[in-house]
Every structure is written in C-alpha cells, then in structure tokens.
C-alpha cells in the first residue's frame, strides 16, 4: 500500500471529466449559443479542450475560439445568458457517469469516509446535475466555482471543504482530471489523484513537477482497493 494514503479521512472529487462525461451537453449548449448569436459552431473536441475553469471562462473561450482571449463584454454577457438558459434545461440529456463511478463511490461510502465534490462548475448546476445522475446522495458536501471567493486552482475550496468536514486538509484526497485539481491539492499538501479517463492528459501533466499527480488511476474503485487496508488496520 502507498504510505501516502494511510491516514485518509475524506475524498474529494472534481465533477466534469472525473465523475461524469458532460462534454456532449456542454458542447450542445455552446452550439445553441453560437447559433443564436449567428456564429459558426465548434467541434465538440474543441469545446472539450476549453472545459475546466467554469462556464464563464468556457463562454469566453468558445466565443473567441481561444483558451486565453476574452470576448467583448457585451458579446460575453449575451453569450453567457444564452448558454446558461440552454444548459440549465439540458444538463443531462447526454451526460452520463463514467463506468464504475457509482460502484467506486458506493465502495468508498462503505468505509465510512465522507465524500465531497469540488468543481469549478456553478454550484446550482453541479448540485442539480448530480441529482439528475443519481449521485448527489453520496456526497456530504458539494462546492461549486461560485461557492467561495476563489475556485481551483486556488487551495481555498479544499481548505474550506476540510474545515466543513472537520478534518486536517492534509488527510484528504483530491481526485480529478486537470491541472487545477493537482495544483490545488499540492498547495494544501494533500494527495492528488489523477484519472486517465477524463479530459486532462495525465501523461502530459506528469511531465511537470507542478502538475504531476501523486497517484494515477483508471477507475474509481482503485481508490477503495487502496484504502481498504487502512480501514482494516484502523479497526484492529
């Protein structure tokens, strides 16, 4: 067993690209927004590359077709309103949990370890999406990108989650698919776990010390498999 995970008291998860594949619905909302604004649609793969920093940033990126540029404020406001209106009504048309997501969450809950979601998605959308996917009841806490003054990669959401759960943040695991998740975890000194099935390229992220996860998994049950020995030891 990895010595770094011998005292885990909580597990936090990113949402999009970690618990579920939401790109089809995010891309559909982007297409609807662009159509309403009289602009050309973008391929779903391009939209996927823009996901991870909240819908506000996603709208900027889709409107400019650039990760770093920002759209004109008036255009962005129209786009944001259009995007949110469509997306709120089509949260889970195509979005589905990744294979073994629910099985992995159920196994972790059986250990008595509190679970949390820390996402950059707006909180109201994150909560509703998790409800529609039948996953909300697994979590003791759901934090969105607008729940606090700062979002990932800021360490604030992780520190806040640990405080709410009544644990030392160093004893929490952060599971995600992006640099934001890994950087935030490293900033608070907790274990960062990267998933290979999400939108982030773990091979690429692992080439940089700042974004290299402590551990890489191919499915959520792998977390349980490594924490089960801890549970048995604690009960001895």
TrEMBL record:
Cofactor: Mg(2+)
CDD domains: HAD_PGPase
Keyword field: Carbohydrate metabolism, Hydrolase, Magnesium, Metal-binding
Residues engaged in binding Mg(2+): 14, 16, 177
One protein family per Pfam: Hydrolase
GO cellular component terms, A-Z: cytosol
InterPro entries linked: HAD-like_hydrolase_sf, HAD-like_sf, HAD-SF_hydro_IA, HAD_sf, PGP-like_dom2, PGPase_prok
Pathway: Organic acid metabolism; glycolate biosynthesis; glycolate from 2-phosphoglycolate: step 1/1
Cited function: Specifically catalyzes the dephosphorylation of 2-phosphoglycolate. Is involved in the dissimilation of the intracellular 2-phosphoglycolate formed during the DNA repair of 3'-phosphoglycolate ends, a major class of DNA lesions induced by oxidative stress.
Similarity comment: Belongs to the HAD-like hydrolase superfamily. CbbY/CbbZ/Gph/YieH family.
Protein known as: Phosphoglycolate phosphatase
UniProt organism field: Neisseria meningitidis (strain alpha14)
């Amino acid at each position: 067993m990895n010595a770094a995970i011998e005292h885990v008291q909580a597990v936090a998860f990113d949402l999009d690209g970690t618990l579920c594949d939401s790109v089809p619905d995010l891309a559909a909302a982007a297409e609807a927004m662009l159509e309403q604004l009289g602009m050309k649609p973008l391929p779903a793969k391009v939209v996927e590359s823009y996901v991870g920093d909240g819908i506000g940033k996603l709208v900027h990126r889709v409107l400019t077709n650039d990760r770093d540029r920002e759209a004109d404020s008036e255009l962005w406001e129209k786009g944001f309103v259009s995007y949110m209106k469509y997306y709120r009504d089509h949260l889970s048309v195509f979005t589905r949990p990744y294979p073994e997501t629910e099985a992995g969450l159920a196994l972790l809950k059986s250990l008595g370890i509190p679970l949390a979601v820390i996402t950059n998605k707006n909180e109201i959308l994150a909560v509703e999406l998790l409800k529609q996917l039948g996953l909300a009841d697994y979590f003791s806490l759901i934090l969105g990108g607008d729940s606090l003054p700062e979002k990932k990669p800021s360490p604030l959401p992780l520190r806040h989650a640990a405080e709410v759960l009544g644990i030392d943040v160093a004893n929490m695991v952060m599971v995600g698919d992006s640099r934001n998740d890994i950087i935030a975890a490293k900033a608070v000194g907790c274990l960062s776990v990267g998933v290979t099935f999400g939108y982030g390229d773990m091979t690429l992220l692992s080439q940089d010390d700042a974004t290299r996860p402590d551990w890489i998994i191919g499915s959520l049950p792998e977390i349980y498999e490594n924490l089960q020995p801890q549970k048995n030891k604690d009960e001895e």
